[in-house]
Amino acid sequence: MWERSLVLSAPGKVILHGEHAVVHGKVALAVALDLRTFLRLRPCGEGRVCVRLPGVGVVRSWDTPRLQALRRGFAGERWEEEIAAHLDTLKEFAGIAAGASAPESLATLAFLYMCLAISAKYGDVPSVDILVWSELPTGAGLGSSAAYAVCLAAALLTACGAISCPLKEGESTARWTEEELTLINSWAFQGERVIHGNPSGVDNAVGTWGGALRYQSGEITPLKRVPMLRILLTNTKVPRSTKVLVAGVKEKILKFPAIMNPVLDSIDAISQECQSVLEAMPANPSPEYYPVLEELFDINQHHLNVIGVGHPSLDRLCRVTASHGLHSKLTGAGGGGCGITLLRPDTSPLAVEAAKQDLCACGFECWETTIGAPGVTLHHSSSLNAEVLHALSES
Ligand SMILES: Nc1ncnc2c1ncn2[C@@H]1O[C@H](COP(=O)(O)OP(=O)(O)O)[C@@H](O)[C@H]1O
Ligand SMILES: C[C@@](O)(CCOP(=O)(O)O)CC(=O)O
Ligand SMILES: [Mg+2]
Q1: Would you say the ipTM is above 0.85?
Q2: What residues does the GHMP kinase N-terminal domain cover (predicted)?
Q3: CA-CA to 40 of 20 to 30 Å: which in 15, 280, 284, 377?
Q4: Does 388 lie in the same domain as 313?
Q5: This model's pTM is above 0.90
Q6: Atom 19 (ligand 1): residue with closest C-alpha?
Q7: 276-294 tens-digit pLDDT
Q8: Which domain holds residue 246?
Q9: For the chain, what is the domain count?
């Protein structure tokens, strides 16, 4: 019987460069965002697993004996290889239509898949009640799917005893060991596979480790030195699905390999150039470093349009910020969602305010953000702000 209550969280992310190209083995640079997804786990009446996902309107619960029977129906331990077949069975079990791709369907499937696959490997997940609440907009390019998957992986692995619960009496926050983080990351990747189809793994890596990192084909390298970057984040509020956009890029590459592959190579070179510039910058950089970073944003934004993940709302975002002398690009999967605008250390508060006003007049939402937040973290309730406490105390 699970007796403790615990709260944990994982950050969203911003991809500076390399979105989509990273799915095809190129380099991406990504940083953790100061917006997080929170998960509360607490004991539940004997024999049930309950899950509440207010962000996507899901309230479900299942008898643990039914979940165990379902798990036993899946032969062997080849969960990773058999994901497509298992998902069909899980859809039937949860009453989700075959082709469903609505947020609530994907979130429920990711939960069931991770819960059963983790139980199959490490022992039953006990009777628990799980509530997930997020500060991140869903489906906007800020890695809400990965933050969700990282939180689920950490909570389920802790509940079934595969990893420790490192929060000690008197501590306000705690993190897991490197080895445990590696396990959390690998299971979060499986959750991302359910939601994205073919994820690169960069988002779950940032959600797990936090900070700023370079990611290529599963290799995660923390950036040596990252200056204080000021970034304006703008949400166009145009909905889109990462799964659909990633599939569209693949189709384009297959259709026009000789045209698209050089574009991906160029995006790779942009990420590498940006990494060199960032690592050469002092902690509080002077404005002279910025023209190169700005130009890299502009070039990459054009490339992302070429590979088919732009959107008129994102073009508008870039035009509006350009009229204030600022440079922007989409971030994440594109097709709507969010864009990032680089602010120089000497960009005046008045100029930022004027740009924000024009962006809001387009119906967009924007805010200045700090980057490099910590990765997946366990919390004592004393470390949570009033809004999070309120959201987690609901129902
Ligand atoms: N707070 C949340 N609770 C439950 N599911 C979530 C939550 N946030 C994201 N998701 C899942 O992630 C999906 C969005 O992922 P995606 O299209 O990759 O966009 P992004 O990761 O950029 O936000 C949603 O459809 C939903 O299934
Ligand atoms: C487009 C991609 O590079 C990032 C997707 O990020 P998001 O789901 O839009 O936050 C896909 C991936 O790396 O798995
Ligand atoms: Mg995502």
Answers
A1: yes
A2: 115-207
A3: 15
A4: no
A5: yes
A6: 139
A7: 999 998 887 888 899 999 9
A8: 227-369
A9: 2
